[in-house]
Write a structure and sequence with these properties.
There is one protein chain. The protein is an all-alpha fold. The protein has 2 domains: 66 residues, no CATH class; 206 residues, MetI-like (MetI-like fold, Orthogonal Bundle). Helix 4 packs antiparallel against helix 12, helix 5 crosses helix 7 and helix 12 runs antiparallel to helix 13. The radius of gyration is 25 Å and the shape is globular.
Length: 297
């Protein structure tokens, strides 16, 4: 019996370095430098004292690094007449972000699941309206929402700002989960129905364990979006619940006394730490989750 000999690939060996690849590397390096330079300036400025900052050497390393500006930014910096630092805004942002993310993801996943497997008359119209709501600029509906929250007694409250973030987050969360669930095989749903599983049993026991990748994406999108929000927090949160971004603006915009650039930079980095940490620690899961629902199965 004649044996078939397996051979390796034929043809010229591809070049390891090409002009197009060098161009891609050059672009990526330029983009990294473009985004890292401001972070570098902020970091070294926050570690300098004011006499050293007044020398005007923007890119020079601090001669005597100190975290005094960070301590002051966290607990002593003034925002208006109050000098409690940015820590109050941090805890307000935590109180706003956690329930807003959880509620919007829960509602979005249920909507996406129902629109994917439990289609009803008018479901396509409802999905179209939700999709339309995902792309409506929120500045357009701010005034009607102010009136609505005022009438129901929630304007300027923690519950009110959580409700606002949930409303604005639910359309994009519905779109995200609906596209992901639509990529799953219909046979899973049909088999569960044959076995007698109801709406909630299929959702919690089958769909949610399979939707961990897209849930990670949803958490990243909602957390960074809500944490970085300024306008909605300024308008709807109320004086006692102002988020970290609003507190940062108040600290930087304070006009009396000496403008302490090192404290301002430290406060800015503290405000950005949560989104930065999320992207650095879970960036690969974000890409995997986006790719998981990108192709219809």
């Amino acid at each position: 019996m004649e044996q078939i000999q397996l051979t390796g690939p034929h043809g010229p060996k591809p070049k390891k370095t090409t002009v197009s690849r060098l161009g891609v590397y050059a672009f990526l390096f330029s983009a990294a430098v473009f985004f890292c330079i401001p972070l570098y300036v902020m970091l070294i400025t926050s570690l300098k004292g004011m006499p050293e900052i007044r020398l005007g050497e923007l890119f020079s390393l601090p001669g005597d690094p100190s975290f005094a500006a960070w301590v002051k930014a966290w607990g002593e910096a003034c925002s208006g007449v109050e000098c409690n630092g940015i820590q109050t805004g941090f805890w307000n942002s935590v109180k706003i972000t956690i329930p807003s993310v959880a509620i919007s993801i829960i509602l979005g996943s249920i909507n996406g699941y129902a629109l994917s497997f439990w289609r009803f008359k008018g479901s396509n119209l409802l999905f179209g309206l939700l999709l339309f709501g995902a792309f409506v600029p929120f500045q357009v509906v701010i005034f009607p929402l102010i009136i609505f929250l005022r009438e129901v007694g929630l304007y300027g409250s923690l519950t009110g700002i959580i409700l606002i973030h949930t409303i604005f987050g639910m359309p994009i969360m519905t779109l995200l989960f609906r596209n992901y669930f639509s990529s799953l095989p219909d046979e899973l749903f049909k088999a569960a129905r044959v076995d007698g599983a109801n709406f909630w049993q299929i959702f919690f026991q089958i769909m949610m364990p399979l939707s961990i990748p897209v849930t990670v994406v949803a958490v990243i999108l909602q957390t960074t979006g809500i944490w970085n929000d300024y306008l909605l927090g300024l308008i709807f949160a109320g004086r006692e619940n102002l988020p970290m971004t609003v507190q940062l603006n108040n600290i930087v915009a304070t006009t009396f006394g000496v403008r302490e650039y090192n404290v301002n930079m430290a406060a800015t980095i503290l405000t950005a730490l949560v989104p930065l940490a999320i992207y650095l620690l879970s960036g690969k899961y974000f890409v995997r989750g986006i790719a998981a629902g990108a192709v219809k199965g």
